[in-house]
Amino acid sequence: MTANEFWDFVHSPENENRDFELIRGMILELYAERVGKGYVVTNDSGITLSEDPDAVVGPDVAFFTDVMSLMI
C-alpha cells in the first residue's frame, strides 16, 4: 500500500475512531486503548522526570502501561 492509499484508508468513515500505522506497505492497527493495558499522552501533558531539582517534560507522545491491569 502506498502512503496516498493509506491516507484514503484511514480517513474512510468506517475507520474514523481507529488508529493505524503504515509499516513497509502493511497496515497495522494500534490497540493500546482498545485492550485497556495502558494509555497514550501527547505533548499537552506534563510528565515529571525528577524532583529536587524538578524536571517536567512534554513528550510528543508517550505510552504508559497500566501496571494493575497487567497483574490481573
Descriptive notes:
By secondary structure, the protein is an alpha+beta fold. It has 2 domains: 1-30, no CATH class; 35-72, no CATH class. The chain contains 3 helices and 6 strands, in the order αββαββββα. It has helices at 3-10, 32-35, 67-71, and strands at 20-23, 26-29, 38-42, 47-50, 55-57, 61-65. The strands form 3 sheets. Strands 1-2 form a two-stranded antiparallel sheet. The chain starts with a helix and ends with a helix.
Spatial order of strands in the largest sheet? 1-2
Number of alpha- plus pi-helical segments: 3
Estimated radius of gyration:
16 Å
Give the low-confidence spans.
Answer: none
Helical/strand content category: alpha+beta
Strand-and-helix sequence, N→C?
HEEHEEEEH
The geometry reads as elongated
Strand content: 25-35%
Largest sheet: 2 strands, antiparallel
Task: Supply the number of structural domains.
Answer: 2
Q: What is the count of β-strands?
A: 6
The pLDDT mean sits at: 81
- The N- to C-terminal Cα distance equals 38 Å
Give the fraction of residues assigned to helices: 10-25%
What's the arrangement of secondary structure elements?
Elements: H1 3-10, E1 20-23, E2 26-29, H2 32-35, E3 38-42, E4 47-50, E5 55-57, E6 61-65, H3 67-71
Antiparallel strand pairs: 1-2, 3-6, 4-5
Structure keywords:
35% strand, single chain, 3 helices, 2 domains, 72 residues, 24% helix, alpha+beta, two-stranded antiparallel sheet
Summarize this, please?
The chain is an alpha+beta fold and 72 residues long. The protein has helices at residues 3-10, 32-35, 67-71; strands at 20-23, 26-29, 38-42, 47-50, 55-57, 61-65. The chain folds into 2 domains: 1-30, no CATH class; 35-72, no CATH class.
